[in-house]
């Protein structure tokens, strides 16, 4: 009964407070097995019986059952013969392989990897996911090897190990970018002042015997002074102290904001300076004798008049400043493009914030204007917008003089897809961000999804951009990865939450508004809810259409089954938000029996599960009628203005 309840879709009818059905059922079964050990065999037999029909499972059923087995492995520490029974065959069924891989990927999230590896049999070695280590081409150390497993092949010889950092062009730029990435922008003086204030209360504790009498005298004097001032004086003093603390807090915040703006500006300046330039190489130091001989030869050729000497001195000073850096352009190096610089920035940020995902999220929060700067093409206009307020106040116009007028070429007409050059460039940079994220965390599904969420939170990447990247840039093998569906689930859930929040906000506003401002606020809230619903439907439409196109083009039977299960999951679990009529129009003459079945499932979910056909207004409810009234009012107003 528990397995039946867990797999009853689209929603398992379990306790309302059970957010995860698999975890809830696992805990219930574990408690029952602790009370009666013989039930463990019953659970194993039930799992085996279910896996015999795994070929007919859809995507959601397979994922729910695999999550249950992942929890079960951690609770019972892998002490079961199921794995050997399932994988001891020479060629296990494909559905069993998918099930085991998904279960292991989830199981290693909840348990220390070496401990779980010791409990697993040798037959599961080919199905163990790789260790979730980052894959950055610019890191100083080669990728770490996974822990040795029983029966695992020997490590490759040194000649086959990954190339060192000197083999990757752009490593020097990568290091310079990392130097400009900070987690916090507090000034050292702020920490010193806070420590000084905190230490003022603990100084007496270190010298209690020597300062006790002085402390008592000081306390007595303060008490007498307070009595003289009275309560009014105490209130004024507290208010003054509060105002001082507020002023200090504001000053500290201003200093942090100013330093943040400066670091963003320096990073943008570094990236803009490398655009369309060759990669750096370390500058070769010249010996003192060579530089002296060059100076003597140059002085003998120069005239003795003061004017020419001043000009040559200025030229030599400029040349010295240009040649004084530790790097120079490598004529045989790689030419930096905008997408290459975008990927270097993402790699540097993720490598800098590698300690925890919170660190990388903080870096994205601190430097998201630089990502927006790259999406604008690192143009001169965008660079001037990055200038700190203190630099503008100083009147330094060096950056303004060094500009160009290349931004005007981005204002041309749209192409065949309706995109201007600026919009196309922004999409390419956004795809470069996502490609770097997927490459960096290619061994970790969970960290890929969470990192994309951090970038989306600060509008570095958009939901539509993620969907476009998955279907246009990833290979079919990469799209078959389970992290793609987990990523789509995240994007859809975020969009649905945004719609529900805006709908609730619109419903909370009073319908009978007497004030014009209140009516305008409610009208804006209703429009925002409608736009949020359209965003959910559009995002889901793009995802479903992308998988449908793949299904129509695919020839392999096994992959067609996998794509069909994903589509069935979307049609059933998100059927409430699918615009069936829009899909009918989009498919047109390409309609097949499989696609027609999916649309039928979505229609049944809407009518038989959510009863949207009986509810006036559908998903909008009472807001739909108000929206119609607003449109009629706007239409009448437009007609009156036209008549006048």
Helices and strands, in N-to-C order?
HHHHHHHHHHHEHHEHHHHHHHHHHHHHHH
Class computed from helices, strands and strand pairing: mainly alpha
Evaluate the radius of gyration: 33 Å
- Would you identify the regions where 5 or more consecutive residues have pLDDT less than 50? 12-19, 140-153, 155-167, 191-216, 405-411
Q: How many helices?
A: 28
On the 0 to 100 scale, the average pLDDT is 76
- Number of beta strands: 2
Lateral arrangement of strands in the main beta sheet: 1-2
Strand content: under 5%
InterPro entries: ARM-type_fold (IPR016024), CBP80 (IPR027159), MIF4G-like_typ-2 (IPR015174)
Biased composition (Acidic residues): 223-249, 394-417
Biased composition (Pro residues): 150-159
Domain MIF4G-like type: 340-534
Keywords:
RNA cap binding; 67% helix; two-stranded antiparallel sheet; 3 domains; MIF4G-like_typ-2; 644 residues; globular; 28 helices; single chain; Putative nuclear cap-binding protein; mainly alpha; Serine Threonine Protein Phosphatase 5, Tetratricopeptide repeat; ARM-type_fold
Structure, described:
The protein has 644 residues and is mostly helical. It folds into three domains: 2-127, Serine Threonine Protein Phosphatase 5, Tetratricopeptide repeat; 133-143 and 167-183 and 267-282 and 328-402 and 421-458, no CATH class; 462-644, no CATH class. It has helices at residues 2-7, 21-35, 39-51, 59-75, 82-87, 94-107, 113-119, 171-179, 188-200, 203-206, 208-274, 288-301, 306-323, 338-352, 357-375, 380-385, 389-394, 398-401, 421-440, 445-457, 463-472, 476-479, 482-508, 516-553, 557-573, 580-587, 593-609, 622-643; strands at residues 280-282, 327-329. Strands 1-2 form a two-stranded antiparallel sheet.
